[in-house]
Amino acid sequence: xxxxxxxxxxxxxVRGPHKMPVHLFVNRQDxxxxxxxxxxxxxxxxxxxxxxxxxxxxxxxxxxxxxxxxDGKPVYSCLTLAIECEEKxxxxxxxxxxxxxxxxxxxxFIEEDAYQCGFCTPGQIMSLKALLDENPNxxxxxxxxxxxxxxxxxxxxxxxxxxxxxxxxxxRSKKGA
Amino acid sequence: xARVVKTKTEFxxxxxxxxxxxEGDELTPWAADEKLEKVxxxxxxxxxxxxxxxxxxxxxxIQLAGMLYGRILRSPYPHARIKSxxxxxxxxxxxxxxxxTHKNIPQIPxxxxxxxxxxxxxxxxxxxxxxxxxxDEEIAEDALELIEVDYQELPFVIDPEEASQPSSPQIHLNxxxxxGKPEEYERGDAEKALREADVTIEARFTTQVALHNSLExxxxxxxxxxxxxxxxxSTQHIYGVRAGVAQALGLPxxxxxxxxxxxxxxFGSKNGAGKYTLLAALAAKKVGRPVHMMLTRKEENLAxxxxxxxIQYLRLGAxxxxxxxxxxxxxxxxxxxxxxxxxxxxxxxxxxxxxPNVKTIQYSVFTxxxxxxxxxxxxxxxxTFSFEQAIDMLAQKLHMDPLExxxxxxxxxxxxxxxxxxxxxxxxxxxxxxxxxxWRERKSKKITQGTQRRGFGMASQIWGGSGGPxxxxxxxxxxxxxxTIITGTQDIGTGTKTVLAQIAAEELGxxxxxxxxxxxxxxxxxxxxxxxxxxxxxxxxxxVRVAAHDAKEQLLSIAxxxxxxxxxxxxxxxxxxxxxxxxxxxxxxxxxxxxxxNFMIIGKGARGPNPEKYSVNTFGAQFADVTVDTETGEVLIxxxxxxxxxxxxxxxxxxxxxxEGGVIQGLGFALTEERVLDRHTGLVLxxxxxxxKVPTALDVPEIEHEMIDRADPYANNLGAKxxxxxxxxxxxxxxxxxxxxxxxxxxxxxxITPDKILKALNKTxxxxxxx
Lengths: 177, 771
What we know:
The complex is a heterodimer. Chain A is of the alpha+beta class.
């Protein structure tokens, strides 16, 4: 016969401060999250919002795979705490294509084959997006510098440079049209 | 009907004879001048959109309801025994759901019993001690710190040559030398030939441990449904992971499903199930929830494989006219703590040139360091670095042009087997490369005065890349006139999906947009081999072509019956049926869906055997133009030219990506990449991307590349060979030779860092003032 027993809760340890609320404005949408203060923006995007485009590679600001745009500037989201981003505008790779149409950078990456495994690609594209938003006429050196903090282990760099320049061209011709 | 045939296959420089099962009829290879519409054309990736939008889901990105996160506690010592272990505090931490140790899991043997999943003996700093699953990664990491372990430190050895001595600390019961003895190869009498040679050279080379640093770390996500296990794994071999998991956990193969849709790089290191896979599977079973277990960057660099270091003693002998008469190599390679196989740094020495007397003695030695794993042309990158420098040393001594010396010893038959090469485009690669770099005019561009010295160098490449059976494919034709190719291979970033779509579209006579390709799932797929050894395209591509052909033949038979026309009067082109006597082509839908309702054509294909009388290899040559600053020791690469022959080019766009990527990894190996180990503690000092220097955007020079595009008439029904590994093989040697040309002295230890250049300069006239 079933017997009702009172289960004793084992004494547990909790480390660190508790979760706290934060408002994030991501890809033109408002979100309210509860995260530990130590949660990075990268983990908040990936785990709390399911936006897994930004990748975790080094988790210490050495590879650029987690690059997103915060208030117009490219940042390493693994070195940014989610709670630091209160009231800030965050843009990720998921919002680049609009109305089912790829952004010029995305189109250029496909045409130039500017990737291999693709794991660094979202970060490369976001770094270049920040560049092109600010400078529509970049030189080859500008493009190289823009992605100099984005590692690509497959070595797609020459084609990434070409894609950056090609995207600038596409954007300029669209503007001119 | 299924047939059993015997075939030869080659993998990572080793040859195997095996029986394989093939099905269906072999197709005649496409002729060299065959008019092909899809194959050979620049084709952007069919999954490009997924890759640029963030939609592509990698193993790291898998998130399941109720999923827990795993973390591994690793040995802080290079050799130790666990005396005691206390996990109580970790278990009490809020959010910790399980802690696995050698005390509470079954003893699961790995690598044929060389070691166990978790055990009290730890053989390198990074070896697995315990496994924690918790509600989140942060909690799991906190819990790691709460596990108390009392270690007994043991004596350790990290240098492979030292470890080969019987007096050094023993890592396994059978001694430190793999299989108890070196692997030896000999043809002719190398020692006698050296004694009789007009000219000899002798040198000691070392190559460093290089880390793959795949951007996506190794890892698995494991979820159970009853007694069936699904594993998402960042792997180059879904069927290998399935076999490994099934064996370790005692499950039948049909209860393990392995999925890999996208992966963030592997470069040879992701060829089977890892301890992380098995631990995640065990914990998921125990807790009843899915477990996500991806290594951290540090763990990736400690425990997930590396290109082993080598020490190579090389002696060459030649006649005064440059004819090579003797090659003698003794090499030591550090396996790290665990391995069932060793690489072949002697491969290039045995195969590259005509030479009647060759001896190679290769020691593969266990050390108390992280285990090695295949890394893009394992053995051959290290072996080419030394051997092709030695050839240049010989050229210098003979006062011969390095290219002339290589041409003097050119051979059209495989010097090991005596069989002719199916194709060998190396002579053309030399010619084109020399032209593109300006080899014959280089003397006028060389700078031999001042602090900025400019020099030119070259190196050759040989590798397998034939691929082979078994590999299977299916081609499903749907009733709307679309096709799906299904095979159990994986696209590891090389563009496999795209070339398979091209091949299927070509054979079917379909537009490429109507062909989809499903890879990387053991449940949907049919067997295909691992994506390594430059074997994916030449193994799987021919099977896909056969499957598409089979489907097309079935379709034409059906069309003939429905249209009441003889089959041979119907052709497929652009996805339409062109029928003799009918003015307008017929839409497939008209035949399939409208007349026949629902049905599906399933074409089957298998990769046929490799040719019996030919040696199938890939070839190439690279040339480097460098400037060396004799005051700082810095090397500036002005240009690299890469020309390779891998049979027919299926997709010039993606093959170019492969070549550039190989060269860039090769230049990292040449100049900057090195795992640094502290000799006194046995600890890795740079297991990160900050101090382990992979090339960045700003390190990339001008790279000019070409393919000698030549359909191989014997290799397989496509005429294509592999290309993944060839382009990394000669880069470091070409750069080393260019540096030597610039500064007048060879740097024989890799990577060629500024300190080594300055040290080498001190031995020469140029660097005299640095002494």
